[in-house]
Amino acid sequence: MNRLDPPDFFDDDAALDTLSLNSRLKCYPQLQAHVAAIKAGYQQYVAANGNATLVNNVPLPPTIQGHLKALYASPPASLAYIGQIRDESDADCCPMCGSFHSGTLDHLFPKADYAVFAIFGRNLVPACKCNSKRTALLAGPNPGERILHPYFDDILRERLFVARFDDLGPVPRITLRLLLDVHHPNFTAVRFHIQNVVERTSILRHIRTSWTNLIRRPSLTAAELRNAPASCQELSDILSYELDRQDVTHRSRNNWRSVFISGLLDDHVLNWLFTAFHRPGWRVDGPLVDHIV
Ligand SMILES: [Zn+2]
Predict the structure, then answer these.
(1) 128 alpha carbon to ligand 1 midpoint, in Å?
(2) Where are the beta strands (DSSP E) in the chain?
(3) What are the residue ranges of helices labelled H in 48-100?
(4) What is the rounded CA–CA span in Å between residue 169 and residue 156?
(5) What is the distance in A from the centroid of ligand 1 to the CA of 131?
(6) Which of 26, 105, 166, 284 is the most buried (most CB within 10 A)?
(7) 102 near 127, Cβ under 8 Å?
(8) What pLDDT is attached to residue 90?
(9) What is the pTM of this model?
(10) Strand bridging mode 124-127 / 161-166
């Protein structure tokens, strides 16, 4: 998950004008009569900050909807920006779920339901396969429940959730814990996004694998952990440094690696790890438990 700067190397309105005047396209000349309505739709999308509960659909005839979807599927030269958004996106961390995959474009407002935004740059967000797992979901039945928008929701810059480890041992119970206060104005939207985008991915499996690596060979989590930390504070400092390193490397505080490391900084986990490092017979960079599954 991450806030992205919206792509600004093209002009959506100008691209629409060029398309509507291109007599070699199938949408010519029917598209011309709908350009004003589509531009108005773009304007209200931006005015509503891409908020899934506020942006209005624009009713267009089925033929025009079909033309817009076809233009997305086979973009002419004037829509070259679609390929550029996909190619130039930072593939390091998915802005929708925080995974380390990317490579596809997500229509945040699905083109099947919102054909008006099929070629709108602000609606095209680089994403991973969480895109298809979300399906067409935009909002929930209760007030404030909505998908977050990487081009508009500044809160995505903040650390929003961390791993929570319980029943510590070789196979702990792992859940995701929100950091926002329940009274925060974006609490409901963030919770909805995490439940309906992030939790549908393989994030818990990723965190479980990271935990197994940590207790098998601590240096896989942070190089300094090949030696036992001298105090709980030193352990906390090492993990905090590693967390910062991951945040900076992936330019996101909600990438899956940071979600894992920040969960280790909970007091009960720090204490458990520190005790495990100092159990009798522990050898440098060796397993932290006796029986590893
Ligand atoms: Zn994703």
Answers:
(1) 4
(2) 104-107, 124-127, 161-166, 173-178
(3) 62-73, 80-88
(4) 32
(5) 6
(6) 105
(7) yes
(8) 59
(9) 0.94
(10) unpaired
- Residue 145: how many other CB atoms lie within 10 Å: 19
Ligand 1: centre distance to CA 200 (Å) = 10
The answer to whether 83 and 27 are in contact (CB under 8 A) is no
CA of 105 to the centre of ligand 1 (A): 10
The helix/strand/coil state of 137 is: coil
Nearest CA-CA partner of 214 in 248, 180, 249, 265: 265
pLDDT at 124: 96
Where along the chain do its domains lie?
Answer: 12-134, 158-277
Q: Encode 159-191 in three state secondary structure.
A: CCEEEEEECCCCCCEEEEEECCCCCCCCHHHHH
Q: How far is the CA of 135 from the centre of ligand 1 (A)?
A: 12
Question: What are the tens digits of pLDDT across the range 128-176?
Answer: 989 889 889 999 999 999 999 999 999 999 999 999 999 999 999 999 9
Measure the CA dihedral 126/132/134/138, to 10°.
70
The CA-atom distances, in angstroms, between 262 and each of 22, 26, 144, 247 are: 53, 53, 27, 10
210-248 residue pLDDT tens = 999 999 999 999 999 999 999 999 999 999 999 999 999
DSSP helix/strand/coil, 126: strand
